[in-house]
Write a structure and sequence with these properties.
The complex is a heterodimer of chains A (378) and B (136). Chain A starts with a helix and ends with a helix. Chain A has 378 residues and is mainly α. Helix content of chain A is 75%, strand content 0%. Chain A has two domains: 255 residues, Cytochrome c oxidase, subunit III, four-helix bundle (Four Helix Bundle (Hemerythrin (Met), subunit A)), CATH 1.20.120.80; 64 residues, no CATH class. With 136 residues, chain B is mainly α. Chain B has a domain of 52 residues. The relative contact order of chain B is 0.06. The N terminus and C terminus of chain B are likely disordered. The chains are: A mainly alpha (378), B mainly alpha (136). The interface between A and B is large, with 82 and 78 residues.
Chain lengths: 378, 136
């Protein structure tokens, strides 16, 4: 590019003049390197704030997991490891293409840069598509954050009036429609620049539905196994109804002693009832060590609304904020793609690509920790 | 301002990472992901979380060193970024040790029994609250 050569020749006196500098070099910088280094320090500082921001959620995760590891173990069974692993692979691949895009911008491979950015965007969309399948499947089952959680083990797939998957897909359908319309218009008006922008963006928008398809295939293959996986929950719910009947007969002493247990697991209630019947028949017994001992010793049901709800609150918060970061990253990648088509970047001005790349790798970095922490608890 | 007498100075700073290196880092990351998923099917007890976190940290280190150019970056940038992890560690350690000593469980004390019209009276709720740590 002639501007670069001109810049190199004018290096001695590039400062001090108002307009005698390459177009990409801001007035207040002496050299492109200084400009790049300033931006780089800025983006590193931003990433520090991102790390600290996410650490709040990791802290919540650590506290709740430390307090109730059994809840995390039980609820993690509802997360599809296959989908999580596929998404990890997709995100790692997008990191590769992003790093490659940075390389392309540094060695002035304009076509390669557009291609790599388009690949990164497509991977981001596939990730979101798989995520949409995961989310909608859980919402239909009632595996929702605390307060909204209504999962019933006896009836894991209740009749739903809302098609959550369609609701998530709708904005992406509109997006795809919009980009396709843009592509058609650009071909009709024979605007080369718009064509070059719209083509990779159309591919990327369509990739969301590739992700949907991928998620559906993996989810359906897994659902049969999943029903075999949780027979215990069904028996628990039977026990639950049994316990309800027993409780409704109303013996205050036992219920008071149950009230001392902060968790009041259904199983422990049942065991307490049985212990009471064994030791004292139908007579009223005093609040004693035996009952309390029974409550402590039994394994508690972790799928109660409040306990499981807390796990899913953390799950949705962490993966949701991560998905929002992916969406923001997609926005920046589209901006880069348009500028790359415009051939804005060169070996002395590749900062924006590098900075967005660093952000993108950080999002990947967070997923690297999220995946084993949420999906792989055994 | 005359520090950069050479016309190359301040203009030739791009450090492209060779493609084979990018690819090998990617395959190493995929391999480590497969190892993480595979180890989840073995029951290694309480070591589980340690193994998982070590593998995740190796992956993070690979991403940071090569994809994020950290191995070639200015030391100051590296210090700035890595120092955030020190503060995260402080944050986690203090909050967790604090919560370990104070909160026995993350559920509120209001219980299912309260809705069963038995422990609904304030006195019963009070009792549940005070005797709750012993039940744990």
């Amino acid at each position: 590019m002639s501007t670069i050569e001109a810049a190199a020749e004018n290096a001695h006196d590039a400062h001090g003049h108002d307009h005698d500098h390459p177009s990409f070099l801001a007035h207040h910088f002496d050299t492109p390197e200084q400009q790049f280094d300033s931006g780089k320090l800025g983006i590193w500082l931003f990433l520090v704030t991102e790390i600290l921001f996410f650490s709040g959620m990791f802290c919540a995760y650590a506290i709740f997991r430390m307090l109730r590891p059994d809840v995390f173990e039980g609820c993690s069974q509802f997360l599809n490891t296959k989908l999580g692993a596929i998404n990890t692979g997709v995100l790692l691949f997008s990191s590769l293409t992003m790093a490659w895009a940075v390389r392309c911008s540094q060695v002035k491979q304009d076509r390669g840069l557009v291609g790599m950015l388009a690949a990164t965007l497509s991977c981001a969309m596939i990730f979101l598509g798989v995520k949409a399948i995961e989310y909608s499947h859980k919402w239909e089952m009632g595996l929702l954050p605390a307060g909204l959680y209504f999962y019933d083990p006896a009836n894991p797939h209740p009749e739903s009036h809302t098609n959550y998957l369609f609701m998530i897909c709708l904005p992406f359908m509109i997006l795809l429609g919009g980009v396709v319309a843009w592509l058609v218009v650009s071909f009709a008006t024979k605007n080369k620049f718009h064509q070059q922008c719209a083509m990779p963006l159309t591919v990327a928008a369509a990739c969301f539905f590739v992700g949907i398809g991928l998620g559906m295939v993996l989810e359906s293959g897994d659902s049969e196994r999943a029903t075999d996986d949780h027979p215990t929950h069904v028996t628990e719910s039977i026990e639950q109804s049994e316990t309800m009947q027993l409780i409704s007969t109303g013996e205050n002493q036992v219920l008071e002693s149950l009230a001392t247990d902060s968790n009041t697991g259904i199983k422990s209630e049942l065991t307490a009832r049985q212990t009471q019947l064994e030791t004292a028949g139908s007579a009223i017994i005093q609040e004693g060590d035996e009952i309390a001992g029974a409550i402590i010793s039994v394994e508690e049901n972790v799928m109660t609304q409040r306990k499981a709800g807390v796990f899913f609150s953390i799950y949705y918060c962490m993966t949701g904020v991560h998905a929002i970061h992916i969406l923001v990253g997609i926005g920046f990648l589209v901006w880069l793609l348009v500028r790359a088509v415009r051939k804005d970047f060169n070996p002395q001005y590749f900062g924006p690509v590098d900075y967005v790349g660093l952000y993108w790798h950080l999002v990947d970095l967070i997923w690297i920790y999220l995946f084993p922490l949420l999906y792989l608890i055994r | 301002m005359s520090a950069h007498g050479d016309s190359k100075d301040g203009y030739d700073f791009a450090h492209p990472i060779p493609v084979p290196m990018l690819l090998s880092v990617f395959f190493a990351l995929v391999l480590l992901t497969i190892i993480t998923v595979a180890q989840a099917s073995f029951d290694i007890g309480s070591l589980d979380i340690v193994v998982v976190m070590v593998i995740a940290t190796i992956k993070a280190a690979l991403v940071m060193a090569f994809f994020m150019h950290m191995a070639y970056d200015k030391p100051f940038n590296v210090i700035v970024f890595l120092s955030s992890f020190a503060f995260v560690a402080l944050f986690l350690i203090f909050t967790m040790s604090d919560s370990k000593q104070t909160s026995p469980d993350f559920e509120p004390v209001i219980e299912e029994t309260a809705s069963m019209e038995v422990a609904a009276t304030p006195a019963a709720a009070d009792e549940a609250e005070t005797s709750e740590p012993t039940a744990e």
